[in-house]
Structures are given as structure tokens and as C-alpha cells.
Amino acid sequence: MTDQTAIYPSLRDKVVFVTGGASGIGAAEVTAFARQGAKVAFVDIADDAAATLIAALRAEGLAEPHYQHCDLRDIAALQAAIATVAQDVGPITALINNAANDQRHRYEDVTVEYWDERQAINLRHQFFAIQAVAPMMKAAGGGSIVNFGSISWHTNNGGMPAYTTAKAGVEGLTKGMARDLGPFGIRVNTVIPGWIMTQRQIDLWLTPEAEANLMQAQCLKTKVYPDDVARMVLWLAADDSRMCTSQLWVVDGGRL
Ligand SMILES: NC(=O)c1ccc[n+]([C@@H]2O[C@H](COP(=O)([O-])OP(=O)(O)OC[C@H]3O[C@@H](n4cnc5c(N)ncnc54)[C@H](O)[C@@H]3O)[C@@H](O)[C@H]2O)c1
């Protein structure tokens, strides 16, 4: 297989907003949209990673994405960041709710504060980003929203109940908002990554034993990379998926 991928004419000049775009799958999404000629804006708290990504895109001769530091646990800051993008870049017609944090925790240790903080980074901002972009998508006659779920709760993963609960909630968010926003031509979908080989995952969890178990579980016997997920996101943001909404799109090499 070559690494040639599709160009979507409908993504050229589209204003795309990616949360958590500085590293991991989000950075692959920012890069993929930039290569499509989209106008990309992203937020993150990892300023150094964001600067590295922007420099790499510049070196590739691509338009520089709009970056703002924004801690997504702060909803007022998220709303302000979205308003700034709308003013400086243009009305957002593709929202990629990508950011999350899969920090492990023992259920015995979870406090009310920790539980709420995990929902704030893994679920709450997705809803408020949708609420903030919906008026501009309505005015534009439509839009595409991609929410990030996770395979982890589908496969009964333990060791992070606040995360798996939030990620299950993402699927409910998608289905409820797809109904409310469908009449305005706004599509809402969930992407479910399998185990994706970001640098963070490789550094933290990829042991020879874990890789052997993964290859046993996947139908396709190669690891899944951030670019594989970004390609799905491009298609969901493009007009090519115009009648697809309220669905789960699984990129996992065949585990579920
Ligand atoms: N990598 C996987 O194997 C995998 C598996 C299942 C689901 N997912 C989901 O895919 C999405 C991307 O995952 P990833 O592996 O690239 O994650 P990651 O942890 O590597 O990157 C997440 C990005 O979000 C940013 N971020 C974290 N907290 C933030 C905050 N409070 N405010 C703003 N930005 C913040 C981080 O700095 C980082 O750039 C997530 O929703 C994740 O749950 C990933």
C-alpha cells in the first residue's frame, strides 16, 4: 500500500477547529487538514508541542494554523477561543472534539473532585464546544462535528473508570446532538480509536507483551497510527459523508 491519500475539494478553505491538536492524534488531524488546504485552528495546553507542530507545517510550506493556549477544563476560556477563531479565521464549519486524557486511576482512590475533573477533560468541553459552534454552523447552512470516544469501555478495560464513563457519555452526546442539529444540516458523529500508536502510548504502555496481545486481538496484524484516524476524520468533515450522522466510526484494525 502506498501512503497516497484522498484530497477532498470540500475541505479547501474550510474553517476547522481541533481541540488538543498539539500532539498525538490531534496533531495528525491538524496536519492532515492543513494538507487539504483547510483553515485550521487548534487549542491545547502543550505550548511547546504546538510550536513544534507549527514549525513542521511551515517547513512543509503549508499555511500556518491558528493556535491558542486553552485549558479545556475552563469553559469560559474555550468559548472565548472559539469566538476568537470565528472573528480572526472565519465561522467554524468543522469541529473536531479530540482532546482527552486517559490517566489511569484506581477506583478506590477517586474523590469527588477527581471525578469531576476527569469529566471536565474527557466529556464536558465536547458539549460546550458544540454549543458554541452551532450558531455559526446554522448560519452557514450546515457543518460537521466529530466527537472522540474510545474503544476502552467497549472492551471492558478497567483501571480508569472516570475516563471510561466519560467516553461512554460521548456516544450519548453524539446521538442526542445529532437529532437536535440534524434539521440544520449539522452532522454529529463519534470516532472510536482502537489502540493508536501515539508517542505517548508508545512511551507509557507499549511493551512486547502488550503488542503481542494487541496483534492477537486485531484482525489486521499491523499497528494503528494517528494518520489512520486522521483519514477517517477528514472524510467525516468532508461533503463526501454528507448523509452520515449519529454514528460510530471505529478505527481499530478490527477489534470490536
Ligand atoms: N491513542 C489511543 O490509543 C486512543 C485510544 C482510544 C481513544 N483515544 C482518544 O483519541 C483522542 C486523542 O487521543 P491521543 O492519544 O492523541 O491523546 P494524547 O493524550 O496523546 O493527546 C491529547 C492532546 O490533548 C491535550 N490536552 C490534554 N488536556 C488538555 C486540556 N485540559 N486542555 C487542552 N488540551 C489538553 C494534550 O496536551 C494533547 O496534545 C482522545 O479523545 C482519546 O481519548 C485515543
- Order of strands in the sheet with most strands: 3-2-1-4-5-6-7
Number of domains: 1
The CATH homologous superfamily is termed NAD(P)-binding Rossmann-like Domain
Mean pLDDT: 97
Q: Strand fraction band?
A: 5-15%
Number of strands: 7
Shape: globular
String of helices and strands:
EHEHEHEHEHEHHHE
Q: Tell me the CATH architecture.
A: 3-Layer(aba) Sandwich
Computed over alpha carbons, the radius of gyration is: 17 Å
Structural commentary:
- By secondary structure, the chain is α/β, with parallel strands linked by helices.
- It has one domain (9-251): 3-Layer(aba) Sandwich (Rossmann fold), CATH 3.40.50.720.
- It is built from eight helices and seven strands; from the N terminus they run E-H-E-H-E-H-E-H-E-H-E-H-H-H-E.
- A seven-stranded parallel β-sheet has the order 3-2-1-4-5-6-7, sandwiched between helices.
- Strand 5 (143-148), helix 5 (161-181) and strand 6 (186-193) form a beta-alpha-beta unit.
- It is globular, with a radius of gyration of 17 Å.
- Nicotinamide-adenine-dinucleotide is lined by residues 20, 22-26, 44-46, 49, 70-73, 98-102, 121, 148, 150-151, 193, 195-196, 198, 200-201.
Quick gist of this model?
The chain is of the alpha/beta class.
Attribute tags:
binds nicotinamide-adenine-dinucleotide; 46% helix; globular; alpha/beta; Rossmann fold; 8 helices; 7-stranded parallel β-sheet; single chain; 256 residues
